[in-house]
Amino acid sequence: MGPSFQILGTSHAGSWKDFVEGDDWPGEDYARFSFFSLSGKYFGDLTYDIETGRFGTFEEDPPAIVVEKLLENNESLNVPVDPDVPVVFLGVHDGREKALECLLFHRLHGGKEPGDDVALISEPFFRTVARDIVFATLSDHVKNFRDGQNTIVIPKPRRLTRHFHSKPKFAGLLDADEALAEANAIIDEIIKEWARGEGVELIMQPKETIDPNGMTKEEYRKEPTHKLNAAGELFEDTAHMNVEFAKLMIEELLAHTGSRGKDA
Amino acid sequence: MANPYESLPDDAFWRTGVAARDPLDPGNLYQPKFAIEPKKRIATAGSCFAQHVGRALKSADVKMLDVEPAPRVADPAIAARFGYGLFSARYGNIYTARQLLQLAQEAYGEFTPANAIWERDGRYFDALRPGVEPEGLGSPEEVMAHRAKHLEAVRLLFKRCDVFVFTFGLTETWCHEESGTVYPMAPGVIAGDWNPDETVFRNLTYEDVMRDFCAFRRLLDSVRPRRYVVTVSPVPLTATASGKHVEVATTHSKAILRAVCGQLAERFRNVDYFPSYEIITSINARGAYYAENARSVTTRGVETAMTLFLNAHGLAPVAPASGTDLSEDEKLERAFEEADDLFCDEALLEKFR
């Protein structure tokens, strides 16, 4: 019997749970997993309002569930006590993704519409602001769960994707795909820098899952792990990870902890 | 026997107008020539002190223009380090009337700056606003592309603004001799390399400054007529290249700028002078508005000057909104207080002594 992992996170952790508990998971030979997931609404302290472009807090609309309280009462929630390896699986509900997408848009286009009063932003400015956003939101996430233990952190399973409209290269310098690749590389660097500062172990997203060099959006949507909704009805969930993605993530985790060779 | 001084008001006499005044009371130094109504769109530009002017106006019941704001997700203090939110466009410090004129002419295709890109350690800087990208950009092409977008925004600003507030800062400048291009900083301070045969020191004269601002006003008024408020920065020079003592050089520069402002206000109906210089430097204030370095203006000094301006125009400061707005304002306020000189290119000259 392998080590016990406690996966803490948002709905993506829930989706992973569906996979481990499903037929595709070979069982507990390698590791035991327990999951604790909250919906995005109740997860982070920060929100991002796409309309106003501002970060907010839940102060005006306090969450019904407080993460720390849940963990204090973990027995009643069936959260295992003292897992060998706590793993924080970062989700997408911390405002980070929206904020970074917004920032990337400005890197490429300036304002949302022609004539908008927003300047084009430079790569150094993008990097500086992205760092500020990532540091604030990741630290917020991890402090919710961390309790002096060595914690493994896996950044969000999705990366920035191309939400902006196609446009000719900006002054012949950068096209949308180049901007996207540049932004994701910068964000990866920032996350690694953050992890060093926090003293947490970091597992980056397996490169096989990253579009366009690996899994495409269409492939990502095949074989969703999350097949049933809360009412037990068949539900093809394409917003969370698929089976292949879940396998790759688990292999990465097991390889990282020495629980199993990646090629095993 | 009748004489012309008999019927003059108290403020025409030094004893009653100044000496009898509380040291921190600016009195009635300013009577606006024209009103700035709340609906008017205001633009600011100028030296470091102009940032204070802009910030005070933002807190008031006026429509401050910012044609190049940072993305809203950016922390205001970070944005300020990159030149966002300091002036009505991201042109950085405009210290001289020549620089202002040159910007307007460039925006309308009447001028092409020489040696417009400076390099440092493989990074490239816009020589006309070298402080707005502290780390520089990746290529000369990128600098040019960003400058083109900036000039587009400047044209928009000049089209939109009803009142242009300019704070004169310096007469000393560095000039590309062959083309006449002036730079806000000497090459080699932030980036670039100084070639004495190419870039020379110029100390603009009264006639130069007057001519440059008149040409700027003429150009803008040809787009559409508007009003101007001119001020003189009370911040002394950080350093002089004139060969004179810096204190003597400061008085020389400020005297020229003050005289030009007075003349502009006398000559043109659409130009008003706001005496921020007199308020801060007043002998009656006994230096109370200067920080320990005897150069930077304290928050109290800025507040005193700008309160007088806003009250004179009936533009009471607006109470900050609650929630995130307050937080952002406070962050920017703090950034200004903690690093006043950080957003002032000229202050970088300190490092050479």
TrEMBL record, chain A:
Protein name, per record: Uncharacterized protein
Automatic annotation (TrEMBL), chain B:
Entry-linked InterPro entries: GSCFA
Residue span(s) of domain GSCFA: 41-309
Name of this protein: GSCFA family protein
Provenance organism: Pseudaestuariivita atlantica
